[in-house]
Write a structure and sequence with these properties.
4 helices; 81% helix; binds protoporphyrin IX containing FE; 169 residues
């Protein structure tokens, strides 16, 4: 069964690369470059790439949840352990519990950003690029995106601790 465990970790790491890498590209490369250009073109580009990355992002988050659960299973951590107290005895319990908590926060922030704040901001931006509504909407959308980015980096750090048996002593 070792090959199934390693395949699950491989898919998990690939999904993490695509999701975190995609966010970094959007924030560090695409947005700053298009903002220097024509406002209408910038709004269309951000909206188009945002919609496309939204699909990839949710496929990644789904893959991370499925393979993460498998990874836990192969590490002998089962759903029931969270309810009979045995999970707390596991050396990776604390970093993994914090990782799952941050993951839940990322899911909630991503849902609000991807299906509410983001589409509202790009619609206002396309309607009237320099309107107060467009500026406020873009500020809100980039705040959600940046908080998610920071949480993503923290999750990867916690993942490194989990893969190495817990917090460094
Ligand atoms: C945004 C979400 C997530 C990201 C970016 C992420 C990232 C990672 C990375 C990069 C690793 C490999 C670490 C290394 O080998 O040094 C890892 C391992 C792991 N992840 Fe995640 N993960 C996420 C969500 C989850 C979830 C939701 C679960 C549980 C349901 C989970 C459970 C695990 C486990 C158990 C390992 C250890 C794998 C092993 O045994 O080597 N992860 N994660």
């Amino acid at each position: 069964m070792l090959w199934a465990y390693e395949l699950s970790v491989w898919l998990h790491v690939l999904a993490a690369c695509a999701w975190v890498g995609g966010m970094v590209f959007l924030v560090v490369v695409l947005v700053p470059v298009v903002k220097r250009g024509d406002a209408a073109l910038a709004a269309a580009l951000i909206e188009g790439s945002g919609r496309r990355f939204r699909t990839l992002g949710w496929v990644c988050l789904g893959t991370l949840l499925a393979t993460g659960t498998l990874n836990m299973h192969f590490r002998g951590i089962h759903f029931g352990d969270f309810f009979d107290g045995s999970f707390a005895q596991n050396p990776v319990a604390r970093p993994l519990a914090l990782k799952l908590l941050l993951f839940a926060a990322v899911l909630a922030l991503s849902a609000v950003h991807d299906f509410l704040v983001g589409p509202r901001a790009t619609a206002a931006w396309r309607r009237a690029p320099s309107s107060p509504e467009a500026r406020a909407g873009r500020r809100q959308a980039s705040l959600f995106g940046r908080v998610n980015g920071v949480l993503a980096l923290l999750i990867v750090l916690l993942a490194v601790f989990v893969a190495r048996g817990g917090y460094p002593s």
